[in-house]
Structures are given as structure tokens and as C-alpha cells.
Records
---
Amino acid sequence: MVMAMSRSATCQQRTRYFQARRTAASRPGLLPRLLDSISSPYAASNTILCFTGKRFGWLPSSLSSTRFNGPRFDESWKPWRATIHPRREWSVRNACALWCLAAVILASCVGRQTEQVVHVAVAANFTEAAKEIAQIFEQQGETRAVLSFGSTGQLFTQITQAAPFEVFLAADQETPRKAVTAGFGLADSVFTYAVGKVVLFSTTLDLTNGEAVLRAGDFEKIAIANPSTAPYGGAAMETMTSLALNAQLTRKIVQGNNITQTFQFVETGNAELGFVALSQVLGRDPKSVWIVPQPLYSPIRQDAVLLKKGSENKAAREFISFLKSPDTIKIIERYGYVGTP
């Protein structure tokens, strides 16, 4: 008689337990909430579903070490919770871990199927503008722009060595043309996306009259980008040549691999002043910046080219088109460049 009553009570407990599980399965949005509440597969086994009528929540709780037969329901408080038999703990953990892993893999696969990616090589002087352009481009649809920065010469070398770039934003016109001639770019895709400006910058000197500061030479180091790989370095050399200051300043020159490193030399005090891009010093004290007059150097026309690796990539062609849009031109001009519609 006692055994029959015990079995009946156990059956009732099992029935209520599986009813609770079916209720959980029928609730919309339950899986996302579970995934949000679990930080690791092992934590899944310690997450217990809690219900009170139509309302439910989450109760992280350690598995009980008490030995008993079947699920045990504690109704001394609400919402009630189901505690799992310790002998089932390992199987529960495995099941939850597999469940979470499958959900993560599925979400990853779905994301990869819908998201398109374009790999863009960007001249270092255009770093900040390119980041903002890429962010807005991604908001337009399910396309992501992966940006890589460096000097124009370094990026071109990487392109010739089979780097996975599909679009090339150079800091000059010559290099994209070289890419086309060498068979890496599409000739009909080349266009000028911006015209850059060179400035003299310092964190310690008053550059209201930058030419006078250069002629006085009261400084130890002046930074420029490597003129053989960075067009802005070439423009800096042109400026000093136009001012007939090459002989006077050559021994004081320190070279950065690209315009970003050149800016860092000045910013950190390793050089008292240096030639950088206007886009890098927007918002600085006007006394710390001298905009080099245009006649002192050749215009820095920056060209873009669609590389052959991106010719079949819809995302790459969309990025090229986006660069030509009026909204993008406004962004380019806001960073100190001259836009070219």
C-alpha cells in the first residue's frame, strides 16, 4: 500500500515536471533568453526554469547534492523550481553544452550566408575618414568592409604578393595605375576619390608662420613619411625643395614608415615638428598647424581602383559606387580633403 502511494506520488511529480518542460518549449523567445543568460556550456546545467502560472523567469541555481528518486518540487516558495537528480547531472550538462554549441554554430552559419565582405587596402592618411565611411557603408545593408592601413607603397607590395585586397585606396595616382599595368587592377575602375593637403604640425612650436620656423631651424628633428613609399613624404620633400631648405634640413629629418607613424613621432615628442596630412590635425590649435601653400608641392590626387580579386564580388563594386556618392563626398571633405564628384 505504502509502495503504491509512493509510486503514485512519484508519477504525479514526473507528470508536473514534464508539463513544465513542455510549457517552456512552447514559450516564444525562450531560446534567446536562455542563450543570453548562459556564459558557458557548463553554466547551462545550473540554470533552472522557473514558472508561476503564465509568468516565468530565470533562476541560476547549483544542482542539489541530495539523493532522491525523480524530480523534486519545492512549493514552499514561488516561483517553484525543479531540482535535477545528481546522477543525471553529467548528462544534463552534456545536453545543454551541445544545445548551446549547436545554436552558436547555426547562428554563425546564417550570418556568414547573408553577410558579404569586401577587403579594402587604405592609405594611412585616409584612416579616420575610411573608418567612418566603412561604418556608414555597413549600415546600408548586409555588407562589411574590412580595412587594412599602410603606406601606399607597402600596400602595393602586398597586392603584388597575393594579399586578399579587392579595393585599393591609394594616396597618389601613380600607384593605382601601376596596379593596372601590372595586371592587378581594372583600368575602367580608376578614379580620384580625394585630393589631400600637407601641413606642418608641432605640439611645442608656434607655427603661425611655418615657413619662418623652417628657415630659422631652431629644432633638432623634423619628421616626414618615407618619400619612396608615402606620397605625403614626397610632398614634404617637394616643399623643402621649393623653399630651398633641403641642404639645411636633411640632417634633421627622421622618417616614418607611413604618415601615421610620422604623426606619432611629433605627437610623442620624438620630433619637434613634422609634415603630416591635414586630416590628421583637424581640431588642433591653429597655432600648432601651418597649412603648406599649394604652389610648394604638386596636388596630392588620391586614386581608387577595383582590383581583379574583387571583380566578381558584388560588395566590392558596391563599395566603389558608395565612394562616389554625395554623402561620402561630404564625409571626405569634412576630413580636410577636396572631394571629387
---
Amino acid sequence: MVQMKNDRGLTLVELVIAVSIVTILVVVLGYEFTGWVGRFNIEGQVKQLYADMTSARIRALQRNRLHFVEIGTSSYQIYEDTASPFGGTVHSVGDTALWTAAKPLKYPANAAVNMVIDTRGLIAPDPALVRFNVSADPDKPDADIDCINLTSIRITMGKWAGGTCVAK
């Protein structure tokens, strides 16, 4: 007659192996998570600027007023042409800022860009390009979207590749 052993519980070896596997998974996934967060931050910044530019374009059409977009290397601001006389080609002191303070850019733009959105929603200068310096991030994540290409009639997000912003 064969006697059955009572196998209830874990041995110390089984417990050490399980803890080792969980530790390895946590370390590996921690590095991946850092990359995901970096990509998300870059893409979020590009999408926020895209949404603000689109909103300014719609406001220019609805209010029949020029809007001025000033993108610096570390922040950006959009102004509505409320200074008298109306119809200036550059932002002046009496224009109304859409926000109380300029919106900061976590990833700096490679160059300052000033644009005018006219009452028909057309953007000048044509074309304009906003590219973000993603190498400012120590992890250098490879985001799917890291630039904005602006033509007189279209605003597109894209990926910087080969010296140009390829639309996504």
C-alpha cells in the first residue's frame, strides 16, 4: 500500500524562485514604463499645441479677427487681434492673450516661430514647421509624433524623419 504525502504549503526553494521571477519582471517592466511615459509626454505636448492651433483657427473664423501665434523655444502664446486699428500683421500691445500666461513647453521647440491666422483661417507664413527637441529627455524616447507641419490651409502632426516632418 502506497502512503500519500501531505503536500500543503511551499518550500523555501519554491518561494525564493517565485520572488526572483517577480523581481526580474518588475525591473524589466520598470524600464519599459519609463519609455512609455517619455513618449506619452512628447506626444501629449504636440497634441496640445495642435489642439490650441486648431482652436485659434476656429476662433479666427468665428470672430472674424486675426490671431497671432508666438511659439518660442520654451513656451507659446496665442493672441486675438483686439488692438485698434484692427488687421495688423504682427502682435501688438493691445491684443488679447488667450491665456493669462504663456503655456510652457517641456520639450523645447528647435526654433521660434511667429504665425498669423487670418479671418479666413489661413496661416502665414506658409509653410511653417514646429519641431521639438526630444533629445532634452535623458531617455530619448522615440515618440510616434514629435513635430507639427503648418501650411496655409492645413495643420498636421508628424514624425521627424530624414530632415522633414512626415505626416501621421
